[in-house]
Amino acid sequence: MIAIIDYDAGNIKSVEKAINFLGEETVISRDRDEILSADKVILPGVGSFGDAMEKLKNYNLVNTIYDVVDKKVPFLGICLGLQLLFENSDESKGVSGLGILEGEILRIPDEPGLKIPHIGWNSLKFMNDGRLFKDIADDEYVYFVHSYYLKAKNPQIVKAVTEYSTILDVSVEKDNVFACQFHPEKSGDVGLKIIKNFIEI
User: Which residue range forms the structural domain that includes residue 182?
Assistant: First the structure.
């Protein structure tokens, strides 16, 4: 069973649909016991950093997420779910993130001819043997929708980057914690393979 954390963030249904397509059972939940009994846990998300942190607190999900991580249950953050794993974000000054991983969430720098938010397909460059990318070729394209990006403190946790105005850290892995800035559930066959790799961890 894969638990998808429900904190009123967008995109939950498309994540559920992708996992069900792969033949796995899901539960969309904010119930602590249900989440902690799952084999894997996913934190999806579309929206703003500050609003999301407020909702995680209001639904008493912050400690639940810490407990999932402490239990070494495989945990995947998607899009905003990646950003929330870090300490803070340019998007919401003064709001602390979960702080599970070290790094900054910065606004994508303006560059002539490039639109922000970054919406569309970009190719991935892999590094440091990320388990999410097993049997996936370099330069495959995945789908992004974001205005902010990760600059990880420890380059060893970075498993994929892309270039859009600057080099963006777009996937990280540390122990049982995985995260993608892009949307695997909206990235066709490549995205489904990434989700399948997570399911099989």
Answer: 2-199
